[in-house]
Write a structure and sequence with these properties.
Layout: E1 16-17, E2 23-29, E3 32-34, E4 39-46, E5 57-59, H1 69-72, E6 77-80, E7 83-97, E8 100-107, H2 111-122, E9 127-140, E10 155-169, H3 196-240, H4 251-268, H5 281-296, H6 310-313, H7 317-327, H8 333-337, H9 341-350, H10 354-377, E11 386-391, E12 397-401, E13 426-430, E14 433-442, H11 443-447, H12 451-479, H13 500-511, E15 526-532, H14 536-544, E16 565-569, E17 577-581, E18 589-594, E19 601-606, E20 612-625, E21 631-634
Parallel strand pairs: 5-10, 6-10, 11-18, 15-16
Antiparallel strand pairs: 1-9, 2-9, 3-4, 4-8, 6-7, 7-8, 9-10, 12-13, 14-20, 15-17, 17-21, 18-20, 19-20
Helix pairs in contact: 5-7, 5-10, 7-9, 7-10, 9-10, 10-12
Protein name: Caudovirus prohead protease
Keywords: Coiled coil, Hydrolase, Protease, Viral release from host cell
Organism: Dialister micraerophilus UPII 345-E
């Protein structure tokens, strides 16, 4: 219902305190639903202009603008259609984000509340309305600035208000602008000509009277609901312990039941408690800003981004810097609006405020996301051939080549005597080292919003780690001492060419390798053929041809058809090639990392001497030869 009261204002063109109806409502729609907890979360107020009066009204939606006394005192009810006689739940929490007030409510489980709850879950009831009291409202004239705010027409600006109740509503009063009906306050019909002081007195008395009545009715309903809930819980407990709810218990029965209940509760005290502290506003801004930048530069897709990331996708790095400074509480929109890019980033990069730290955190998380994405996309071959090991520090760690020989022996009949084999395991030292590099993000990069260049730098660093690992593996395999020797029996001697006979010779050399005690064959077969890129097709033809490529008769079957996977690398520059066993059957070269962390890591720090942010990348790893037996070499000529 539109407010019929006319209001007198002074003619001066400025923001002025004004006398308007102190009660109002607004309507929005249901948001997130948690059926298990009977809990709903939705926006119930925004600072968008709404036509509550002859001029639009704006209610500011920051924590300092809203009086939450009723919420803290537990007297902020959830009603149906603003009817104080239909109490269906309570408001448990109110938060503020991005110029919105967001409420969390919980439905009661009585019969009447259950009906409305089901309609909300089913979608037939989606309207939400809030009844609130205006504590401080001014008239703000067109293009007049007030605390950094300015509008293109006259408005009422409510800078302090108090929510009284939130309602689930069936029919919005004004679907175009979402305005709900006014709370029932005695109205003066027709034109009001009384002076402002008299009008203020009448209005205040009506408000106080209405407030007292609303509080009493709400408290009464709350007490009745609590009493009903207590009776229901008693009946439920009686049913649980197999006692008729209407039966009168003796004192002995009561003592036994109480003792049982106490023991049950003591047992539950040791159960783990999961506590979800939720995310702070600063953490939410950081997540959205990081994913917004990642969307902008194609690092992730929209399915992987958090809600709200698109607002930063469409804006530059300046918007992120401003939001970080504002969320710290040390800056406001007005003070930042007049700053140029140079001055702004001097504050955000050079000063050690909370907002500055938050901005650096955004850059740190963004750099880490870009680095991980690029690290995964760099193609390599070394991982096919290596086993994985873990060292806990940078000291040499000794690992053992466990003997694969020895066979069980026949035991004497009805004897429990075992024969034991002595340990003959050979130990091998493994080492890791740290490899890293950094980039400096100067103030000019942020001023020019040149984050695309930053992305390219990080991508180059990330893929560089994988390229380094590839090179280190091949340096060890191709140039490492002590792998391929005549004594080891893993170098082809008879057939130094690219033929099936050469493959067969190399295969037999691997199969006939013996255990550490030289007692039994280890039984390891090659899984890969590794060669240079110049000879890839020759080996593919030899191994993937159904017929024997050495025979003129196409009906002769290729005995090595699909027996090995061909892998090529530019690090082998001649005809040399290798047969390699799968690392899951026998370890040859171990890729060792610190505490199992395979990927590069990053951190971002602010420079103490210059206006720049430094991003550092590092990875702790090493390649270590464990055993020569999974490898066989052929010079190819």
């Amino acid at each position: 219902m539109r407010n019929k009261r006319r209001i007198k204002f002074h003619a001066r063109r400025s923001a002025t305190d004004c006398e308007i109806n102190n009660m109002g409502t607004r309507e929005v729609s249901i948001g997130k639903v948690d059926k298990d907890k009977r809990e709903f979360t939705f926006t119930f107020m925004t600072d968008e202009p709404c036509d509550n009066f002859d001029l639009p009204e704006v209610c500011l939606c920051r924590q300092e603008n809203v009086d939450l006394t009723r919420l803290k005192n537990g007297v902020l009810p959830l009603l149906f259609n603003h009817n104080r006689d239909i109490l269906i739940g309570k408001v448990t929490d109110i938060n503020f984000e991005e110029h919105r007030a967001v409420a969390t409510v919980v439905f009661d489980d009585d019969e009447e509340s259950e009906k409305i709850y089901k309609k909300v879950v089913n979608g037939s009831l989606q309207g939400v309305s809030v009844g609130y009291r205006r504590l401080k409202t001014i008239r703000l004239y067109k293009n007049t600035e007030y605390q950094g705010l300015k509008y293109e027409r006259d408005i009422y600006l409510t800078t302090k208000w108090q929510p009284y109740e939130i309602s689930i509503v069936s029919v919005p009063a004004d679907p175009n602008c979402g305005i709900g009906r006014e709370l029932e306050v005695e109205e003066v019909k027709g034109e009001v000509t009384m002076d402002l002081e008299t009008k203020k007195t009448v209005n205040e008395k009506a408000i106080v009277k209405e407030e007292e009545r609303a509080v009493k009715e709400t408290e009464k309903k709350t007490e009745e609901k609590a009493a009903e809930r207590e009776v229901k819980e008693e009946k439920t407990f009686a049913t649980k312990i197999n006692v008729n709810a209407e039966k009168t218990l003796s004192e002995d029965d009561i003592v036994k039941l109480v003792r049982k209940e106490i023991l049950e509760r003591m047992a539950k005290e040791n159960e783990p408690i999961n506590i979800d502290l939720g995310k702070t506003n600063e953490e939410k801004i950081c997540e959205r800003a990081v994913d917004g930048l990642a969307l902008q530069y194609g690092i992730i897709d929209e399915k992987s981004a958090v809600d709200g990331a698109n607002q930063y996708r469409e804006n530059g790095i300046r918007t992120i810097a401003e939001d970080c400074l504002i969320s710290s509480g040390d800056y406001n929109e007005k003070s930042l609006r007049h700053m140029g890019n140079a001055e702004l980033f001097e504050h955000v990069v050079g000063k050690r405020s909370v907002g500055s730290e938050q901005f650096v955190s955004v850059i740190d998380n963004f750099a880490n996301k870009v680095m991980l994405n690029s690290y995964k996309e760099q193609p390599t071959t070394f991982r096919k051939f290596v086993s994985k090991g873990v060292n806990r520090d940078f000291k040499p760690t000794y690992k053992y080549r466990v003997g694969l020989g020895g066979v069980p022996e026949l035991m004497a009949q009805e004897s429990s005597e075992f024969k034991y084999q002595g340990a003959s395991d050979a130990r091998v030292a493994t080492n890791i080292q740290t490899y890293g590099k950094g980039i400096s993000l100067t103030r000019e990069i942020f001023i020019n919003d040149d984050m695309g260049t930053v992305v390219k730098f990080i991508q180059a660093q990330a893929s560089g780690f994988e390229r380094l690992k590839e090179k280190m593996f091949y340096d060890l395999l191709l140039k490492g001492a002590g792998i391929f020797t005549k004594a080891h029996g893993n170098v082809a001697e008879k057939h130094k060419d690219l033929t099936l006979k050469a493959y067969n010779e190399m295969r037999n050399l691997m199969v006939k390798q013996k255990d550490n005690d030289n007692l039994a064959y280890i039984g390891v077969y090659p899984s890969f053929l590794l060669c240079g890129t110049d000879y890839t097709y020759t080996h593919l033809q030899n191994l993937h041809s159904v017929s024997d490529p050495t025979q003129s008769n196409a009906n002769v079957t290729n005995p090595l058809y699909n027996s090995m996977q061909v892998v090529s690398t530019p690090y082998i520059e001649d005809e040399t090639y290798y047969l390699i066993a799968s690392p899951s059957t026998m370890e040859g070269i171990e890729y060792t990392t610190l505490n199992g962390i395979d990927r590069p890591q990053s951190r971002t720090v602010q420079s103490l001497e210059t206006l720049e942010v430094k991003v550092q990348f590092w990875n702790d790893f090493g390649f270590n030869l464990i055993d020569y037996r999974p490898f066989v070499k052929n010079d190819g000529k």
